[in-house]
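Sharing a chain and its predicted structure for anyone who wants a worked example. Both blocks are below, sequence first, tokens second.
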Amino acid sequence: MKLFDEFLLINQAEAPKIHILRQSLLHFAKGILTKFVKPCTVLGKLPQDVDFKTSSNVKSKQDIFIGGAARSFIRECKTLPEDRVKTFFNNAVVYYRTVASYIMEKMPLTDELLLEVVDPYKRLIDGMSNKLGLLLDRFPILMGSSSKDQILCCYHEFQAMELPSRIDKSGQRFGTGRMS
């Protein structure tokens, strides 16, 4: 899925990216939710606050994202029974709910330690790399294919990195709306 690839590419770059980790986690989680949850349910909420398990919050089968090839196949295959189409879309929702549940459980979207470690203003405080180590112990999924030592080494680079003078708490530069 393109969304997974984007998340991995952003967070496995050469330069330290810890200051945008939380923002990219939230973007990744919201990206999954928007594939199957009604926009009015997602709008203005953090991903962890979205009720994606309630059926009335799920998009209609016309709006659930299944990809263009699958959508064309369903539209063009005149012999496909409607009950099979319904089962397919129900399975797609089950898949998306499973992925969303996994993300909410395994990713530290609301973890106070993450909020502290990624805060560009707290990066200079003594002991922050130790806190990152604790975070990685609790959420090993954040390491991907990197080792804990590689990530801690990157964090030390991040601590000494020159950041734009105006960064908000989410890691975005003011005025640009783009992640640095």
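Comments welcome. The radius of gyration is 19 Å.
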